[in-house]
Fold each of these.
Amino acid sequence: MSASDVLVIGSGAAGLTAALNLAERFRVTVVAKGQLNEGSTAWAQGGIAAVLEPGDTFAHHVEDTMVAGAGLNDREIVEFVVERAPAAIARLTDLGVPFATEGDALHLTREGGHSHRRIVHVADATGWAVQEALQRAAEAHPNITLLPDRVAIDLATSRHEERYSGAGNVWGVYALDRASGRVELHTARATILATGGAGRTYLFSTAPRGATGDGIAMAWRAGCRVSNMEMMQFHPTCLYHLEVKNFLITEAVRGEGGRLINPATGQRFMTAYDAERMELAPRDVVARAIDAEIKRHGLDYVHLDISHMPADFIRGHFPTIHEKLLGLGIDMTTGPIPVVPAQHYTCGGIVVDAHGRTDLPGLYAAGECTESGLHGANRLASNSLLECFVFGEAAADHIATCWDALPPVPAIRAWDESRVTDSDEEVVIKQNWTEIRRFMWNYVGIVRTTKRLQRAASRIRLMTDEVAEHYGHFRVTPDLIELRNLLQTADLIVRAALHRHESRGLHYTLDYPATLPEAVDTVLVP
Ligand SMILES: Cc1cc2nc3c(=O)[nH]c(=O)nc-3n(C[C@H](O)[C@H](O)[C@H](O)COP(=O)(O)OP(=O)(O)OC[C@H]3O[C@@H](n4cnc5c(N)ncnc54)[C@H](O)[C@@H]3O)c2cc1C
């Protein structure tokens, strides 16, 4: 049990930014389901987009974001985020993030879909440096309590009040303490969900093991709308390796001259798909091109080749990737890297406004678990960390401004501990976990059809009953909590995909290949 002013669920870029912005005035508790650095933030390689190059403008960054988003972005939100990027970079620099420099200026790299060099980075391990700096600052702050190894199960809402008010407020969360095996209640006047994405709904994903859509599922169950869940981004270039299944080869390798080659024909195949932008076309275009080459030629992978660039240049720009690949017997300075597309980013999520407010009083959300209107139908590379900083701060600001209007926490019921039997069928969890990820990959992947989506929907229906029965009878475990959320998220993705009768951005279906004239969000209402 903990009681604080504000509870943050998630210790990545969004959660820690929010916590640091609140801590001068409030007592903040941050819970994370594993170690503090186990979210996607620490895995980000490429960098953070910000207008800093002479000749670049906010208008260019806005336009590039809108083009990638295929009409579904909210222009005001895009402007709001883009205009706050330089200040966000300055704050991270103040926190000690050692961004790469060139002379007196920050070194900027270029990524697919960006019309200018705009990506601030720390070599090819930007996220790790950002996570370290945020975590160091949070650990040093006397008003921040960091609680790793707490798996949030469900939000504590008005329904859990001892006297049900029906007001729909959120007062914190029930979370499983991995060490004690007990479910604790963490209460707060305001709660921020910063739980990251839902990549692990798919068999191949660049996201860490914990990206199981927990925040999206919890918010949905509590009564929040979710939007654009069908917009799942597939990164074109994940390493193809029999043992290492989720190592990303950053966009910047293509930005710095990497070419995509069909290993069967030896041809640079992007000429046939997007002759103008080639390897720097937006991710959905490149991912579909690779998928098409793989399917047409019966390949396991295609080649990404940057070995025509000087070896020192490659080692200097991509030290982490170079080292990792060498350990696997691949030398990117002398030969190509085998790559496949993999799920990479969840564009849809909990509906939030410019202050990070959800539909429920007292509940905010920030980062990859949200749909803020920034990404629309496709995220522009390196805009996602930026979204975490801007919305982490915006949510904190709103809480601080409206603090007096937030009602104090009433008496909330403790977790019902009547389910004391341990499951005797762990196999149910393992089997369903693998099955979801496999059918989502096969039926709800890069290229969809209505029939495949319906197949996925019918499997989800069957599994929902099985998992609900399990959840209702046995003591909760981290795996069971995640499986329940994975299934809930898969259901939301499939429902949203079935709802959209067109192809737009990341949603491509053979049954509706055209784009409709009007761009409309897919908003699911609980
Ligand atoms: C390989 C890779 C490379 C990337 N490269 C870039 C890049 O170069 N630039 C860019 O802008 N973006 C990049 N991204 C995307 C970006 O890293 C993420 O969108 C961003 O870091 C998300 O931050 P977040 O704070 O929303 O969530 P995360 O950093 O994922 O943090 C989620 C937090 O929530 C916690 N959590 C989740 N569920 C629960 C629960 N049930 N209970 C308690 N805690 C929970 C986790 O423990 C974790 O602390 C990349 C992503 C990946 C996977």
Amino acid sequence: MIGFSLTPEQKAKQEKARRFAREVILPAAGKHDREGDFPLEIMQKAYAEGYLTPLVPRQYGGGGWGILDTCLLSEELASGDMGIFVSIFVSTLALHPIISFGTEDQKERFLRPFCSKYTLASYCLSEPRAGSDPASMETTAAPDGNGYVLNGTKMWITNGGYADLYVVFANTDRQKKHRGIISLIVPASSPGIRRGGPIDKMGQRASNTTALTFQNVRVGKENLLGGEREGFKKAMAALDITRPMIGAGAVGLARSAMELATQYAQKRIQFGVPISHHQAIQFILADMAIGIDAARLLVWRAACLADEGKRNSTEAAVAKAFAADLAMRVTTDAVQVYGAMGYTKYHPVEKLMRDAKVIQIYEGSAQIMRRIIARSMLGRVP
Ligand SMILES: Cc1cc2nc3c(=O)[nH]c(=O)nc-3n(C[C@H](O)[C@H](O)[C@H](O)COP(=O)(O)OP(=O)(O)OC[C@H]3O[C@@H](n4cnc5c(N)ncnc54)[C@H](O)[C@@H]3O)c2cc1C
């Protein structure tokens, strides 16, 4: 059966998140965009609402939500500000490998404390020379006694400057490429970790993005997630779950741009009538609505498959690619509807356009999403 109706509980979650976005996130969005500072107060409020730990099972103090419910949350939070949403969301990405592959001892040691006080986690995969091809990572985890010694630099780490916990992917033997990659839970207080300063970005400026350097950081074997040889699979499994959430965020961002453009088109008079009376403008607005609906349905499909425990790598890539491109198109068109005013800092649509761009780059770029989709059609091609 295919259903498109949300349950009363889902609608209540959605409405609550929409209020949070409208009352807490949106009023601060412009300031954080201008100043590029971290929205600590909002993050603490998000923690109090349980938005940092929706996927963590209830037995450890989390929300015990499903993937679809977390996508509903994502769309609403991102409608307030995509950068603040990403700061909230990234702990879910980092915690996913612990939720799915952690031992009971690891869940007790890391998930429970995470839920009982305000804490952030980062997902550390990318490196200066390994982005779309993470299997070529240079960070090493050299086996040493009853653990590993981590050395290397991670790059573009969201919340890197503020996280208390890092889930780090590193190679025990670079000759083995992805088969040598392991995943380690690393407390940020471990000696030998150096956090870089915030990277000055084009958009999503409320989210903190840094480099992280690991110099002879000792990590006990009890912090190894799953077996050796399994780390790369865990990294990719987390992305299958979180790509629909990023897609949902893109939908929320696009929705805000569409709402602003629709309001402006009804107010701005040219040729003696509101510009919304011109068919060319109506069609721009209608195309926004068509794309947003389509993207949301793709997101929901990818999320529902994950909730059913089914493999969704291709559907997650389809949803993420479509929603990211859609957000870029809708925000660009919103600037067009505003005309010259859209090209100024006096109206928020230029910010939405800047915020949209990076969705086509992170969590797997537009090209990498298409690579995944083409592979599902053609198999591996040389
Ligand atoms: C704001 C921000 C936040 C981020 N947060 C995190 C985080 O929390 N954790 C983390 O680990 N990483 C994070 N990243 C990193 C992000 O995942 C990478 O930027 C992304 O994977 C792309 O890697 P790259 O930037 O090195 O681009 P590259 O891999 O250098 O790619 C450059 C261009 O080449 C294209 N390309 C590469 N390979 C192929 C191919 N085989 N076929 C066709 N085209 C190709 C790409 O699509 C892209 O257009 C973040 C990045 C940003 C900008």
